[in-house]
Amino acid sequence: MASDRPRVLSGIQPTAGSFHLGNYLGAVRQWVALQESHDAFYMVVDLHAITVPQDPKELRANTRLAAAQLLAAGLDPQRCTLFVQSHVPEHAQLAWVMNCLTGFGEASRMTQFKDKASRHGADRASVGLFTYPVLQVADILLYQADQVPVGEDQRQHVELTRDLAERFNGRFGDTFTVPQPYILKETAKIFDLQDPSIKMSKSASTPKGVVSLLDEPKATAKKVKSAVTDTGSEIVYDAENKPGVSNLLSIYSTLTGTGIAELEQKYTGKGYGALKTDLAEVMVDFVTPFRDRTQQYLDDPETLDQILAKGAEKARAVAAETLAETYDKVGFVPAKH
Ligand code: ATP
Ligand code: LTN
């Protein structure tokens, strides 16, 4: 199905049971919006998930759970292509070619690799973790994506994708679309509720600072109400001097569609407590139906697997074409069937 809409592609790892608010506001929310205007490909990146140790049972459950959450968040299989990365073997195949084009030093400069390697212990980090960004490059280039909707932490990987696309095109002739990152300023980085100097993240944060979308709504309300705020009592957006309150304002503003200035005005003369109580309510109203919808998809695994099978079929049609062209440009002899 050819489309003259610009193409977007993105992925999310099935490494935790529940998405957190940073995943949703930083990425998934944009995915939902972009399926209306773009030819959209979204995937659960299970190949990426095994770059750190994984339990097979959990990985399988979390992959379906991730797909269920994406559907619950509003992805519509009629409007986008939703699939699981390992269902499309071309990802690993193109990644090999991209690995051979990437400098060792270049890969060593990826900050997420450096962070994760030091967290797991440099000796225990796998070669897969080292080439994780190169697999991501292959993910993006296979679909000739024009834009990649992600959070700020993924910018460097999109830059690497641009560099490798240009390098390949320069060496072998025009083959790949050079993609742009699609990162919204307001939600590029959602911060930990307990430590607003670090990003909300399933692997690095304190559990109290991470809002998991599938938590009991009551627990979510509690986390919001006990969020760390800043000295002073004024509710104004000032990311540098008031990171805690600014983070809450960003979350509030995005979830309700109310501008930050309007919120500042609404809370003039009121304390942090009032802001947090109201935001807790907004959060509960958001997560309650989200949890219910996720459960509905999980209750019907056959339908879920069918959606993913159709998605993989659509994805493969595009991926196979790009891979065949790449193999040809590199100089591989075509396999006779
Ligand atoms: P990890 O902590 O293990 O690195 P993660 O919590 O960052 O995981 P990913 O699956 O790596 O989650 O990310 C999925 C998407 O969510 C990516 O596009 C990423 O940029 C975005 N994202 C993750 N955390 C945040 C955040 N705190 N603010 C904005 N976007 C985020
Ligand atoms: N590394 C990304 C997940 C990811 C991705 C992609 C994002 C894998 N492949 C392709 C955009 C495009 C992350 O969120 N940690």
Helix count, DSSP H or I runs of 4 or more residues: 14
Low-confidence stretches: none
How many strands in all?
Answer: 5
In N-to-C order, the SSE pattern is EHEHHEHHHHHEHEHHHHH
Fraction in helix = 40-55%
> Which structural class should the secondary elements be placed in?
mainly alpha
Cofactors, ions, other ligands: adenosine-5'-triphosphate, L-tryptophanamide
Mean pLDDT: 95
Globally, the shape reads globular
Cα radius of gyration in angstroms: 21 Å
Percent strand: 5-15%
Spatial order of the strands forming the largest sheet: 1-2-3
Biggest sheet features: 3 strands, parallel
How far from one another are the termini? 25 Å
Briefly, what is this?
Helix content is 54%, strand content 7%.
Structure in words:
- It is built from 14 helices and 5 strands.
- By secondary structure, it is mostly helical.
- It has a 3-stranded parallel beta sheet. A two-stranded parallel sheet has the order 4-5.
- The longest helix has 30 residues, at 301-330.
- The model has no long low-confidence stretch (mean pLDDT 95).
- It binds adenosine-5'-triphosphate and L-tryptophanamide.
- L-tryptophanamide (LTN) binds at residues 9-13, 45, 48, 136, 139-140, 148, 150, 154, 157.
Secondary structure elements and their pairing?
Layout: E1 7-12, H1 21-34, E2 39-44, H2 46-49, H3 56-73, E3 80-84, H4 90-99, H5 104-108, H6 111-120, H7 127-130, H8 132-142, E4 147-149, H9 155-172, E5 180-182, H10 217-225, H11 243-256, H12 260-266, H13 272-298, H14 301-330
Parallel strand pairs: 1-2, 2-3, 4-5
Helix pairs in contact: 3-13, 4-8, 4-14, 8-9, 10-13, 11-13
Bound molecules: adenosine-5'-triphosphate and L-tryptophanamide.
L-tryptophanamide binds near residues 9 and 10.
